[in-house]
Amino acid sequence: MLEGRILGLDIGDATIGVALSDIMGITAQGIKTIKRESKKKDIEEIKKIIIENNVNLIVSGLPKNMNGTIGPQAEKVTKFCDLLKEETGLEVDYWDERLSTVSAEKLLIEGSVSRKSRKKVVDKLAAVIILQNYLDFKKY
């Protein structure tokens, strides 16, 4: 396993959910939701998190279409990640995130979280689900 932490991202048009692995790469914790302003500001915010947490790998959810193809949203995500790679020098792995936001929403509903509160944390939780699935997969 690499030395350092893994950053998980759920990149949307309005927000970016951010999760971080523990140092051993076993568990994922949600750390924040970035409200999107501009690519430059978004990347600066992510770079700050990377430096503060000794991150050495980024895992981004890739929103594929239900039939597995790459659509316009996935293209936006890969373009953003290409910039992120360029700016940070870190590798970006992609994880098929189909239904991660749906799963996050379902977990919050089951936990009786109000609609207003769900809206604030759903992207962060989706990032946790993406990163945790990636970590679990890499163990085997």
From TrEMBL:
Keyword Hydrolase: yes
Chief subcellular location: cytoplasm
Keyword terms: Cytoplasm, Hydrolase, Nuclease, Ribosome biogenesis
Role played: Could be a nuclease involved in processing of the 5'-end of pre-16S rRNA.
Positions in coiled-coil regions: none
Family: Belongs to the YqgF HJR family.
Subcellular localization: Cytoplasm
A matching Pfam family: RuvX
Broad class of enzyme this protein falls into: hydrolase
PANTHER family for this protein: POLYNUCLEOTIDYL TRANSFERASE, RIBONUCLEASE H-LIKE SUPERFAMILY PROTEIN (PTHR33317:SF4)
UniProt keyword annotation of Iron-sulfur present: no
Protein name listed in UniProt: Putative pre-16S rRNA nuclease
Residue stretches making up the YqgF/RNase H-like domain: 4-104
EC number in record: 3.1.-.-
